[in-house]
């Protein structure tokens, strides 16, 4: 009888896991199929994925705090990206090169992003329950103001050098180059690069050492210690397989960039252990209960959006310095959509998200981006179909997440009524 109960519990747990992470599993299967049909060598695919991770992961992680605070996907991170592009424009205009130029851009982004975040959060407090759609519309509205700023105010009311303006007209040039004498291209990524194998050994050693120290200090459970140890050792052993080494042979890791990402992951974990983090969780679980407990709900929600907006701006700086060019009028437009779709692919919902889900989702989402075009050409004879498929998937994942969230909410209310 005991064995039967254990088996039933196991089956129930598996079904619950599949139900919760159905989008992730579907994407995993879809990605494997498209990798096979793309015909691209794994060395090339993994190199492309590594590059996309280094420039996109920070922005995806910036979405976590508003989700935990119960505000859904903050598509208004697009406005944080706009603040970052203002900072980069001024750094280029002032001819500040290298890592100092990125720090100046980040410094300009901080107050701009905080102010924009305050305004966004204050407005979203007026539309509780509709924050996801509200932030999306806010992004479109802000884009109009951004175009006005860059087309008519910069270069006319605010003087800029000819290096960044349209020659013979007003406004900022359509494309700003960060390479060459500008000196901002890979200013962060190029500080320290190592082969993938070296990075894997280093990270595995750090994870294993940290797990041992935390377990010895009785700050980690035995099961978690075993899990982390198995992951660290298993990753190193897996990399010893010649086929795996060959697949990752061309991949280089920008160490400093991923260290910055790791700092953000630690920040997301650490802030949730503070008093402010507990308020985020309380507000996300129930605004009514949080308000009854003496928490200023509106203030907490505004702080969550301010943090997210500033972090997204810094993520956009990482993205653009990796890319090497700033498409002045369009670089920010898809930031919110792609980041939101990526975190949902990882298994996050509109009220629950973790660093792990953001990382898994970013890997799967951008793996699909890398292979979709070639798979579309090989399957249908037209690479454009792969591009259409990527856009369709981006919107489709968000639509499915919204529908599932609404369904779960209605189901929970129905059970509560019974």
Structural overview:
With 418 residues, the chain is mainly alpha-helical. It has a single domain, classed as ABC transporter involved in vitamin B12 uptake, BtuC. Helix content is 73%, strand content 3%. Strands 1-4 form a two-stranded antiparallel sheet. The longest helix is centred in the last third of the chain and has 35 residues. The radius of gyration is 23 Å and the shape is globular. The mean pLDDT is 86.
Question: What is the topology?
Answer:
Elements: H1 2-20, H2 22-38, H3 42-61, H4 64-68, H5 77-93, H6 98-124, H7 131-153, E1 175-177, E2 193-195, H8 196-216, H9 222-239, H10 242-247, E3 252-254, H11 255-271, H12 275-285, H13 287-292, H14 297-323, E4 325-327, H15 335-345, H16 355-380, H17 383-417
Helix pairs in contact: 2-16, 3-11, 3-14, 3-15, 3-16, 5-6, 5-7, 5-14, 6-14, 8-9, 12-14, 15-16, 15-17, 16-17
